């Protein structure tokens, strides 16, 4: 089946995940009875998540011709002879009006009919509610033939809960294994544990030599084997030097004196973040000056490194400098200035710092900016500035943390759920 990306704006994106079949049409009949049959209308409508009757009716409304969709046979007909390219253009208009989110452009939306008989599109990715223009002729047909409620949503939620529980159990098991390894490492120096390890090694050697006895050279190792396997006399056991990293560090500590040890520890001290306090206003002004001069983004990282203070302080100052006073249109500003944010997340652990900066900024920003936080995260995610695992972890900590009453989590929730569902679908 020949597939194409949903939405004309995404036609050149080779990695776009939302696809639909290319339209196939067939002219049937003659004279006044001539009709255009959209052969694969059912498959197209299924890919768009809309009833095939909606798309067929849309063609009829736009062309001013009678149209009919047969629910039993799945046949879609529009009176008159129409080119495939013309119908494909009309289908693109349908996608823009009734499928794609008006906020982020994602086609994963659901039609919702309000109590006041208005049609909205709820986006599963960013949570944005798009209001459909009720002047369109198709809206009357949709109100008379509302879409069926999605089935199986409870089952999906139950599956997700079960998956989360399995992940938690796996994490607990991993923690127990780590604890056991630590305990084993601590007890490694005790004589009782060493005897147990030696006994296991001897048992293993016995099994090896028993196999070698069948070979012609088996007798040549017999005498050596008897000496090594004397369980009654520990002095005859041949010990080997423990070459693990933990043991090596222990030997270094024993051999180095206090002065040498302090010299060795200098390298680890240098890796710690700068502890000097920074004036947020001063850091913000420095970043503003840099951007105002129009300096290249390649030099921006060196500017951030020159500022004193912790990584979190500098990133918070960066957000203040880039988006101070922003309200509606916060997400668009993030897209424009994403190169500066990308330069700030090149170090390890900086993605989590950036997300905390978003949280801190939204705590001071206007309600209009906070409403767009899901769109902001999607822009950062699409630009590969922040990865999915960091977003999910940050969200979980925020919901369960001391700031769980913040409206930011309510706005972020739909996007996080979309991320998790998209991952589970890709795994399936």
TrEMBL record:
Any one annotated GO CC term: cytosol
All copies of domain W2, residue ranges: 273-428
GO MF annotation list: eukaryotic initiation factor eIF2 binding; GDP-dissociation inhibitor activity; GTP binding; translation initiation factor activity
PROSITE patterns, per database record: W2 (PS51363)
Family named by the database record: Belongs to the eIF-2-beta/eIF-5 family.
PANTHER family from the UniProt entry: EUKARYOTIC TRANSLATION INITIATION FACTOR, EUKARYOTIC TRANSLATION INITIATION FACTOR 5-1-RELATED
Identification of the protein by name: W2 domain-containing protein
Annotated organism of origin: Erythranthe guttata
Phylogenetic placement of the source organism: Eukaryota, Viridiplantae, Streptophyta, Embryophyta, Tracheophyta
